[in-house]
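Summary for the steering committee. One of the milestones for this cycle was to obtain a three-dimensional model of the protein with beta-D-glucopyranose bound, which we needed before selecting residues for the alanine scan. The sequence and ligand used are listed below.
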Amino acid sequence: MKEIFAVDVGATGTKAALVDLEKGTLTTERIKYATPENAGPTDLVPIIKQLLADLNYTEGIIGIGFPSIIKNGVCRSATNINKTFIGQDLNRLFTQSLGHPCYCVNDADAAGMAELHYGNIQNASGTVLMLTLGTGIGSALFRKGVLLPNVELGLLRYKKGITEEYASNGARKRKELSWEDWGTELNAVLAYYEKIVSPDLIILGGGVSKKLEKYKKYLETTVPIVPAKHLNAAGVIGAAYYANTVANKS
Ligand code: BGC
């Protein structure tokens, strides 16, 4: 069995586990530490080091799901993390500071890859939109099983801001919205997303995906909506998959 340490860096929590790459499952518990507000590299590196120690991972590659646009390892946006990350080569930064070869990928793209390879997108033939509803809204778009990386629907302009400020789980908590009010807002945002990418299927991930029964009745999308098979673990599993795939190619 091949196991990889993978971490899902979130704006509020950073989670890690070891992942069995054949089955696409966690082989350890998923350990989580709070991410400090506006976290920068000097905040994140010690947290990931602690996670490595907790899981006793001393050798091998690391997959990192990160909440920003990542092009060839370089961070190109920072909505809910420290702006100093922008322009930094995250693969190099984490490889040097953690002492393991690190491979970074957008967190929603990672979650989508987990669903594609081990979960609910397997055999999906058309256009599949995976959304992660957390502090922000992450999006991953697949056409016939192929990922178009770094699609950022959460950053689309909407009302007085961007969609994630209204329909993320972070917005629900911050504004203390009822399931009905938040579900209605999410419904409007999903209708907007549908117009832009015309998906055949929508998969919801992030912590709130396990509570879909509470707000599904407010969602009137023209296409089916399903929760991610791996729920909130999809980001960790996909980051491991990504790291292994890239490491094997290089
Ligand atoms: C970022 C995305 C990220 C999403 C979920 C957004 O604010 O722009 O890159 O995938 O949050 O973390």
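Key point for the committee: The helical segments are 41-54, 90-98, 107-118, 164-167, 169-174, 179-197, 234-249.
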